[in-house]
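Notes from the 1:1 (GR / supervisor)

We went over the backlog. Supervisor wanted to see one worked example end to end before approving the batch request, so GR pasted a single chain during the call. The sequence is below; no edits were made to it. Supervisor asked that the structure be written out right there so they could see what the output format looks like.
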Amino acid sequence: MTNETRRISVEGTGRVRLRPDLARLRLGCFAEHDRAALAFDACSSATAAVIAALREAGAGDDDLSSSGISLSRRHDSNRYVALNGLVVTVRPPERAGEVLAVVVDAGGDALTINNVEFDVADDSDERSQARQEAVRDARRTAEQLASAAGVRLGRILSLEESVGRHGGGQLMRSLRAAPAAAAPAPVEVGDQEVAASVSVVFEIGDEGAT
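Structure output shown during the call:
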């Protein structure tokens, strides 16, 4: 066996469950008119009403951010469409349903709920745990292979990693708000999973059981 072939390549995976601690509501206000200025003004007024309602409900400066403003003419008519996007951070995430009811009442028919996402502000500890478990998982597999082959497992020659997040994502997409007063929407936050995967190449030592 040459030095070029004396190696074992394995994959390892580590997973850690965690609970989201915030929700992000991606909203938009929409207005259409045959005059551009009137469409823009109507959209701006609806957006201002939504922002005022959110602040009254406890949203701070760090919880609100614009995500895009546009004004365009429809290709099939001479009417103009104005859009104003807004991202709202809600803590704790269980309040998302309550906040959705607030913005629906404030925005009325102009409001669009584009997306609701759950996230974790800081998952560095969980990512570290997932990485450690992934490396341990890879080593266990390599040791089993080396033992079965009757060789000794040597040092690590290379190590590559990928980290992902799964679960607890989108709730709803592209919903136009109802005109009537809204009740708090039922919201299930769920758990997320931080998953780390590693590819490890071990050197094979001298023959002989590990």
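Supervisor's comment: Confidence is low (pLDDT under 50) at residues 170-180.
Batch request approved.
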